[in-house]
Every structure is written in C-alpha cells, then in structure tokens.
Amino acid sequence: MISKFKPSWMFQDIYHVSPEFLAGNHIKYILTDLDNTLIPWNQSDGSAKLADWLREMKKYGIKVIVVSNNSYSRISQALTDYDVAFVSRALKPLTFGINRAINQYSLSRKETVMIGDQLLTDVFSANNSGVNSILVKPLVNNDGWTTWFNRFLERFVFQLLKKKYSDIHWQ
Ligand SMILES: [Mg+2]
C-alpha cells in the first residue's frame, strides 16, 4: 500500500527538473499540478522563471500539460500568459484527470511523468495511472487547501516512505 505513495523522484521544485534529466529517463511528456507546484496557491498567475522553464521544455520537445483539481476559470486565468494545455477538475487522487490527458494527447505512460507537491493526490494518482511521478516541495507553505489533518497525514506517509525506501531524498 505504501508503495502507491512512493514518488519515482523528488526535486526541490520544478526548476530543478531539467530537459537533460527527463531525456536521460526517457520522459517526453510532463503532466503537472498547478497550485503550489507551478504557481503559489494564493497568486493568480506565474512568474518569469516559470515562463523560462516552459520555454526550455518546449525547446527540447517536451510537452507540458497541467492536470489540476482546480476549476477551468482558475486554471485558464493562471495560465493566460503561457501556451499550456490543461485538464481541469482532475479529481486527484483518482486517476480520471491523468487518464483524460493521456487519452486526449495520445501519450505513452512510460514516457510520461506527473509532477506535483502532494503525495496523497499527485503521486498517488500517478502511481495508480501507471505513469512516473516527481514530488516537489510546495512553493509556499501556508496553502489554502490543506487542513491540519491533511498535513498530518502527508507527513505521516512521508515518514513511512523514508523508513521503507533508502532512495527517498531531494535532488
Ligand atoms: Mg498542489
């Protein structure tokens, strides 16, 4: 059961995820969470740094698709300045949104990675969909979605993973 929460890799943030790393692991497609992964949950849009990162991915032919539980209007507002496809109301931790992106864009699961800041939604849904996963640290700590209980649960699962797997470390 705990293996369902194990990320394939862990990075400080998306900016540490490079085209070279992805190519080295035969990844061509990125599905990514929005809030606290690409953009702080309490901001309406992204940064110049995000624009650079997206440009870099495009240059190397890596397709980026946002898969978010948030609403169509929140996501389209946040991504106004970027040319990025997205799936809204993804229903993570269920696999619905990831599968929709995979089918809609004809992605190969082995060549796809889901990036997100939550073990319980992003990583869990990725593992259940048969795609790779990258856990990143949340961009801001004081996020809106989390209740005290969710944070507690997330920390608990992380401790279990650290106990069980020797390769749990931030790159
Ligand atoms: Mg998030």
Automatic annotation (TrEMBL):
Protein name: Hydrolase, HAD subfamily IIIA
Originating species: Lentilactobacillus kosonis
InterPro entries referenced in this protein's UniProt entry, alphabetically: HAD-like_sf (IPR036412), HAD-SF_hydro_IIIA (IPR006549), HAD_sf (IPR023214), PGPP1/Gep4 (IPR010021)
Superkingdom of this protein's organism: Bacteria
Keyword field contains Hydrolase: yes
GO CC entries: cytoplasm
Key words, A-Z: Hydrolase
Listed GO MF terms: phosphatidylglycerophosphatase activity
